[in-house]
What does this fold into?
Amino acid sequence: MSLDRTVLAFAGIMVLTSVALTQWVSPLFDWLTVFIGLNLLQSAFTGFCPAAAFFRKIGVKPGPAF
It folds into this structure.
């Protein structure tokens, strides 16, 4: 799987996890969803994604976006 698809899959998993935690644990986990959304927005504008940097370090092959 390419780096782009890995980052998108990770973002999706994190959003779904934060929604589940908000539903079943505490409404304060909404802030995790907000953080994920802000991170996605900033990476769209700046091209820097911390998750992409991490996945690149562990050896995921690069894709066209990152």
